[in-house]
Amino acid sequence: MTERFATVALPLPLASSYTYRIPETLGDRVASGARVVVPVRRRELIGIVLDSDVPAPDATARDILAAPDDRPAVPGGLLATARWISDYYGAPPGLTLKCMLPGGLWGESQVIATRAAGKWSVGGFAGEILDWLEGRAGEAPVAAVARALRRPVWDALHRLAAVGAVRLRVEPPDTAGSAATERVVAIHGEPPTLIERASLFKRRARRRELYEALESLGGSAQIRHVVEQLGFGEAVIRGLVQQGLAKLTTAERVRDPFGDSPGTPPPDTLTEAQATALDAIESLPPGEGALLFGVTGSGKTLVYLEAVKRALARGKGAIVLVPEIGLTPQTVSRLRGAFGDQVAVLHSALSDGERADAWRLLRRGERRVAVGARSAVFAPVQDLGIIVVDEEHEASYKNGETPRYLTRDVAAVRARIEGASLVLGSATPSLEAMARTGDRLRLLRLPERIGARPLPPVEIVDLRVAPKVAGTGPLVWSAALDAAITETHARGEQALLLLNRRGYAAFLQCPDCGEVWQCPRCTISLTVHRSPPALRCHYCGHEEALPYTCRACANPVQQMRGVGTQQLEQMLAERYPQARVARMDLDTTSTKWSHQRILGAVERGEVDLLIGTQMIAKGLDFPNVTLVGVVDADTGLYLPDFRSAERTFQLIAQVAGRAGRGPKGGRVVVQTRHPLHHALVWAAKHDAEGFLHQERELRRSPPYPPELHLVNLIVSGEGEADTASRAAEVADWCNALVARHELPVTVLGPAPCPLARIKDRWRWHVLLKGQSQVLGRIVRYAAQRLPRAGKTRVVIDRDPVSLL
Ligand code: ADP
Ligand code: ZN
User: Backbone phi, then psi, for 400, in 5-degree steps?
Assistant: First the structure.
């Protein structure tokens, strides 16, 4: 009998895979895509079989220890997608597969041996194992068996497994995450008045901060969140409890709010435009795609639903991708309304165990529709018929770590591999998607809102000259926005106010010497926070107390610059005391389901003014929202990134699209100091095509995507000089490669990244510009040669979404 070997990808940053011997006893369980347990140095790891019949390696190969899956965990289509990702993005195959499979199916394994009931006439060492297991209630981890019997046990175990005397299963680590309760601290009793607070919290500022933080989180929070995220000590929590102002409880682990909601039933008749788009999607040849370009409120969701419904009717499955599951409860609820428990919702709040369960249900075909954020593109849906990418232009579709894939492109590749159709949808498509229409994507339009509702008029207020109201502190508040809010509130309608800057103020500056407080670990200014008060770095989480004097010149007054959402919230409460204000940003939504809580309150009409960062710009469909205010349209306009105009256009156009979705109509007021910037001019006209056209011209010279493609090589290291010199080497390496093969590629840099340091690591980059195919060759070389030298690291970011 000839020996068989398999290549196995391990969840480690290794450019290549490893070859192991397949023990006869494991036989055909070792197939491409199957999980196997293999020895790595002195540990046992779970890996994925890439190929199961490869030539014998030069060195002796170790044995695969166990193969827990009856059939491969990673189906063929996904494995092929993984190979494409690994090759295209220059990512190690093991890391690519690691990010595909839920954590619960990975990691350091524990193989459990269970003795099958009955009498087995096995002698020798195998018999000893059976006896020993019997003494342990029939079950024990293999490692424990080996320790107890002081011998290698795998051979004997495989023989036992082959005759059915022992069953081997892999217990993934970490499934304990689904434990039933968690510790919570909750406000107790009536909230004290401001005067009472002053005396209750005299000399106990931290307690007051905690109390108010709990208030802003809706009255309670997990203790873990309070300690780890908000930075309060356990003593502060205990103090508050002793004062009788809070109590500790254990709450039932917060249940999935999608879990048993029946969902919203969809409207039952399609408009003509929707029907036409649907027919076009239906007639796509297998593996091909369409871009559904429909203005905000044009009913794209219903088209997705119908397309998914038809796929199901043909016995196929579907994947629906949304930018962030917490921000799109309405889309999820519509899917559930239409497909009930056919749907698996893959959201980030699932524990590893729950995620692994969802994976198995999909893999077995017991769920046919997967909905989730970017990683749901890897859902093991059987007989995939369609992949929908809603809001395809969203930056969150780019994965921020290795493999740095772009979900839209992975979806296209997977659709092609599995013969599914692809539907990208947006009111503000990316330039890249638009550039592919006519060639690889069919362009489908929904030019009108449902019910022929007009898009809301947008008023651009030039803050340099517009009349302003007094008494709003550092916040520049135009009379126009002020009047709009007052009128909206008087009519009992709701308003959204966008300010894309969280925290209290963007930074703290000395008015005397100009010193700005920066993060000691990152080259970025620290953001001023009020609840709890601190200077905080939004990149690394560094936190320090608010200083009273300038560290450079000791000037006793420090000035806050750049109003953030916390300050806006405070100002609104003072200026519009009758209005109920809620705030939605990263700081108020870090607990499970907090998005749903806030959005639920808006939906029920319990909030008059919802302020928020970009989070409130997406997907919301509230008919009573008749005013959208953009407090400062300029926050992202002049970032040193070629996409800053595109991002600003998308943000303003999307948030404007939240207004006037109901019969009452609506309007939009945008405050800016750059009223003539093309991003704002086109957004004010709701004219995405106009914007795309002009921006496309601007990307021709100097050329940027979609004129050509980019690869950003980011070099980082702890020493500034090391990093710079390594970046120079990387640039030399690229230049030499380009010269040797006469490649049509431009090498820019090395240069420090705009964010020159993050988390104590200096960052330099080398930017490659060229056509995709030739860049692919460089990426393939680079993946083998570049990654590590000494303490510096090189990250390959192909098709980067941000150059910061
Ligand atoms: P988009 O995603 O394009 O911004 P939505 O899908 O949220 O738009 O649809 C906007 C609104 O129109 C929703 O309230 C939806 O229920 C409603 N709607 C969509 N299609 C129809 C239809 N065919 N008939 C009636 N109402 C519809
Ligand atoms: Zn930092």
Answer: -85, -5
pLDDT digits (tens, 9 = 90+) for 530-551: 877 888 888 777 888 888 888 8
Residues 6+ away with beta carbon under 8 Å from 121: none
Q: Which atom of ligand 1 is nearest to the CA of 269?
A: 23
| Ligand nearest to C-alpha 761 | 2
> Per mean pLDDT, which range of 23-32, 178-187, 717-726 is the poorest?
178-187
- The distance in angstroms from the start CA to the end CA of the chain is 57
519 pocket-lining for ligand 1 (C-beta < 6 Å): no
Please give the mean pLDDT across all residues of the chain: 87
Whether the per-residue pLDDT at 467 is higher than 60: the answer is yes
Which runs of consecutive H residues, i.e. helices, occur in 527-674?
Answer: 565-575, 594-603, 644-656
User: For residue 760, what are its two tokens?
Assistant: 């104590």
C-alpha of residue 302 to centroid of ligand 1, in Å: 6
380 CA → ligand 2 middle, Å: 38
**Residue in 302, 320, 628 to alter for ligand 1 test, most ligand atoms within 8 A of Cβ:** 302
**Residue 359: what residue type?**
W
Ligand 2 center–CA 536 separation, angstroms: 8
Q: What confidence category does residue 255 fall into, taking pLDDT thresholds of 50, 70 and 90?
A: very low
> What whole-number distance in Å separates Cα of residue 615 and Cα of residue 687?
22
Nearest CA among 338, 288, 290, 334 for reference residue 313: 338
Mean pLDDT of 212-236: 76
Cis peptide bond prior to 532, omega within 30° of 0: yes
Q: Which residue's CA lies nearest to atom 5 of ligand 1?
A: 299
Q: Is the pLDDT of residue 427 over 50?
A: yes
